[in-house]
Write a structure and sequence with these properties.
two-stranded antiparallel sheet, 172 residues, 46% helix, mainly alpha
């Protein structure tokens, strides 16, 4: 651990920080800890509000993904996300995670849905086009049915994955 000077200094453009003995600025975690230590010792009059990270726990990626694929709450994994095919619950019964979020939040789930649908259709089309003797018309008819049915089925999973992606990147 680097020694830190006893007096706080204002660093232009970097906010409130401390100058170390080696002339480098401390990290933000060190700044908050140093300010708290100075406040306890009576050397600092005001302390910046430090957010509490104890409630923000990032779960492992695979656990979050598994919970979302099971259509469960990405935070606790106990409560179901949906009551029916298209009706999403307002919040988790166990941990209270808000599933509804703000208006437009689930527009990002369209990227999951559309992206996977387009990827599957592209791979299947070119695979069947070059590997079989199906006519273009029958190949396109089969893929058209897939393009209509698959996104309706995958809708719930896309929303679950989007909520899990949000919880993984920015836990509440």
């Amino acid at each position: 651990m680097r020694p830190v000077a006893d007096e706080p200094i204002f660093l232009a453009g970097n906010g409130f920080g401390f100058q170390s003995n080696w002339g480098r600025t401390s990290s933000s975690a060190e700044k908050i800890g140093d300010i708290a230590r100075l406040a306890r010792n009576g050397h600092a009059k005001e302390m910046p509000a430090a957010h509490d990270d104890s409630t923000k726990v990032r779960l492992p990626f695979w656990r979050t993904l598994f919970r979302c694929c099971r259509l469960r709450c990405p935070r606790c994994g106990r409560s179901r996300l949906f009551d029916g095919w298209f009706s999403m619950r307002p919040r988790c019964d166990e941990c209270g995670l808000d599933f509804k979020q703000e208006p437009g939040f689930y527009l990002g789930s369209i990227y999951f849905n559309y992206g996977l649908t387009a990827l599957i259709v592209t791979v299947v089309y070119f695979t069947l086009f070059f590997a079989t003797t199906l006519s273009d018309r029958s190949l396109l008819a089969g893929l058209l049915v897939f393009v209509v049915v698959f996104p309706l089925w995958f809708f719930r999973y896309a929303r679950g994955l989007w909520l899990g992606f949000d919880q993984y990147c920015d836990p509440d």
